[in-house]
Write a structure and sequence with these properties.
- By secondary structure, the protein is mainly beta.
- About 5% of the residues have low confidence.
- The two termini are 48 Å apart.
- The longest helix has 21 residues.
- Helices cover 9% and strands 59% of the residues.
- It has one helix and ten strands.
- The chain is elongated and about 80 Å long.
Length: 235
């Protein structure tokens, strides 16, 4: 009998510890807004010599729930723009003399600026762990993200030697993505400042690996380092 009572007490204690860990302590639910800006870089093994980083923008809505004072679960819903940017030098077959020498024609464009823009719907979920407990709190934030393909646009600008725009082409179709749903994984380090009991602002240095193909022929991931800022409202 004492043994059974002892087991029950141990079980009750274990349950109490679990409940204490997973029971909210203060201002457990928060909603907010965020805006991130960064650059997308291709990790393709073979890339065009003139490929540059492409600016990436990601606005969205946030929700988080506190398990303890330091440990939070959060999720967000928003948009993610990414793409490729390539600058190439151009030579034309007509720019040769009778001896086979290259003779530039100033009436022809000699620079192309090609940009591939893609838009995704982004659903992100992860954990946030606060490293400090002061008014200015430092935290780390690993996460996973699912990205749903929405649209694509290819734009190419051709420039003359003096820098003037010669022509521009821009197409949205036809484009068939190799997959319409891709995954990303990321990690952020940030700081949050409590403005009051209800509002706080934060800033995160973030980077994520995106398993997507920007063009149908590419078989490479992209890495997107970014800076994200946002506002929390405690419910």
């Amino acid at each position: 009998m004492p043994s059974e009572l002892y087991k029950k007490l141990i079980s009750a204690l274990g349950i109490s510890v679990l409940l204490a860990f997973f029971t909210p302590i203060h201002a457990q639910h928060s909603v907010g807004l965020h805006f991130a800006v960064g650059k997308s870089y291709s990790l393709a093994p073979v890339k065009p010599a003139g490929e540059k980083g492409y600016y990436s923008v990601a606005p969205g809505f946030d929700y988080q729930f506190a398990f303890t004072e330091k440990f939070f679960l959060y999720s967000s819903l928003g948009l993610l723009s990414t793409g490729r940017h390539t600058i190439d030098s151009l030579k034309w077959g007509s720019e040769t003399d009778n001896m086979g020498n290259y003779v530039p024609d100033p009436s022809l464009p000699h620079k192309s600026d090609a940009r591939v823009f893609q838009l995704f719907g982004a659903v992100q979920t992860g954990i946030k762990y606060y490293l400090t407990e002061k008014r200015l709190r430092l935290f780390i934030q690993p996460y996973l993200e699912g990205d749903v393909f929405l649209s694509n646009r290819n734009t190419t600008l051709y420039f003359l030697d003096n820098g003037d725009l010669d022509t521009k082409t821009s197409t949205a179709e036809p484009f068939i993505p190799k997959r319409k749903f891709v995954f990303s994984a990321g990690f952020g380090i940030g700081a949050e400042w409590a403005l009051s009991d209800l509002f706080s602002v934060y800033l995160i240095a973030d980077a994520k690996l995106m398993t997507t193909d920007v063009t149908p022929l590419d078989k490479a991931n992209s890495i997107i380092p970014a800076i994200k800022t946002g506002l929390w409202y405690n419910l």
